[in-house]
Amino acid sequence: MVETTEFAAECSGYSSIPVSQCFASVEIERQQVLRLIKAFHQRRRFERQVRSLKSLASLWPVALGVLLGFYAPLLRDFAAISAPWALTLLFPFSALVGERGLGLSWDTSHALAQFLLYAQFPLEGLLVRIVLKHRLNLFRVFGQVTCLHVFAVVYLALVSGSLNQILMS
Length: 169
Description:
This protein is an all-alpha fold.
């Protein structure tokens, strides 16, 4: 039996004690297993980092909605100056809350309209994120959000009677 002192310091703590060839091969296998375990943990850590970056990247519609939410009053003022129908088209939910058919008091409807002015774009961004998780492309999602706006505008037109005036003339 051939003995070596190569792993004596790691195995027994003394470098002067010879170690058998069998014990040396077991120590080499142990070190290889430790390297494999370390590589496995590094790969898992990398995969977790990639997953977390992907989940953060999927939040872009919400982030864009929050950004647009900050600029909502400016957009409202610009739309009110340019055309009154643009205000209803951009912020149909704020206009919807102000309708008399809901039976809200003036203070409540004004406060809710102001809240919806700021919250509309972040809520739509959240809706876009949820819909995009179902593997739809961006054009279909844009179509769904546009459809939501169109339905709100049509409802406003029906409630206010302006659609009746258009159809009767």
